Amino acid sequence: MVAKVREVMKPKLEVPWTITDRLVAWWDPARGLQRLRDRTMMAVAGGFAGASTGRRGLSAWKTTRNSADADLLPDLPVLMERSRDLERNNPIASGAISSTVTSVVGTGLTPRPQVDADFLGMTVEEAAAWNKAATREFALFADSEDCDITRTQDFYQLQDLVLRSTLVSGDCFSILTFSGIPNSNRPYELRIQVLEADRVSNPGNKADTQTMRGGVEVDQFGAPIRYHVTKTHPGEVGNRAKTEWTAIDAFGAKTGRRNVLHHFRRLRPGQNRGIPMLAPVIEKLKQLDRYTDAEIMAAVVSGMFTIFVHTEGEGLNFDGGMGYETGAGNGDSDVKLGYGAIVDLKPNEKITSANPGRPNANFDPFFLAIIRQIGIGLEIPYEILIKHFASSFSASRAAMVEAWKLYKGRREWLISSFCQPVYEAWLEEAVALGRIDAPGFFDDPMIRKAYCGVAWHGDAMPQINPLVEIQAAAERIQAGLSTHARETAALTGADWSAEHEILALEIKERQKKGTLVGLKPESFGDPTKKPANDDEEGGE
Fold it and tell me: Where are the alpha helices (DSSP H) in 357-465?
């Protein structure tokens, strides 16, 4: 009996009989048998269980070995449509997108120019003066809606638009163009035109080829050559005209300057279009949305006087005879439930009360279990996803730190994909116009790179317990594990150099007026007294 049980439980080993095996066996049965034995021994000796086609749990799993574009491009239009629908109508999807954008961009990523003074032969004072001048000049361009070709958003609001569109649709495009319209108040002609993903497609909606991938024309190495853009959005209101495409070169023919910025995250080699952020969890989000609606409806029904009327013979007739008091109006074609409805029974009728058993006590645990899976797919801890912190300080901070890893990575991506290229394009125009002095800027790429150094600052990571965070930062600085600049940026998102100058001025002014409290004014000395040199102090 034991032997039979073991035989039944023993996994079945299947070695596929290929065409080559059949040909060899037909020509030489002995060699064919030996070939089958060898392949069987190899199957027994090793291999991955995940690659087995004979196991019951994996036999129906059909997979492909397509390229990145072959897997993505046929499904991309539907992915974009469903992702946008969820972002509009599903609170979890909308919250995930909005939370990411708010944490990454917030009030905007601001540049702090950091010219390479050592390479350019500048003194510290000269570099500081150049950085301040560049900061003021860039604000003239970035703080105005004129930088947007639609004259609707400033540079920092465009950051929000670019990131949000990329997360929802998978990618978007920014065209760096020049208006050609001089303005005495706005000397810069650089304009940013943000395009939605739908506007880049193959001319004539033709099939993808080796050199044309989703509207992106590439060379033999897969590098973009030009982008094919529709003159209007394919889904524009009232757009009945024939769709026309315009080809825009990716780089300037003479200068090599980037004309188009393609904003997307490449997850596989050879991938030419982006994947919506919600793509891995679209099905679960939709099913959870339907389940939530069903539970809400069941809870609403349970709050009414709900009955079922059993009739012998003909069904219910609501047109005449003895009436039924329901929640339906005169113009309604269906029967509705009413609050505290009174039902007048006919002969041979009886009523049965409905008991949906709502609210469902198991709804919340099941909902949270699915939300955890969705959070894993989006790299967002479920506490952040649903904005609910019911655990300890350590657990809540761990969730915040994990989420901040995602936000920090997205921020660095946005800087390299959008912010830095726009800054460099602006700086080229500023130097060409003579508004910023940068000798050798157009002569040597190394000199140009030295002038283009920028540190981008954004909103800091939220603090669950500010006192603990500040104490930890102070101890890291005192132990030599960090710097004031790094901790200031991490805690407040501000530039330490600027804050330090303002703080020094404040301390001096408060010392003069005798309002310095809590900072031990004796440690700062008398601001009206000239500092003593080493000889006066008895030094060597």
Answer: 363-378, 382-385, 393-414, 420-432, 445-451
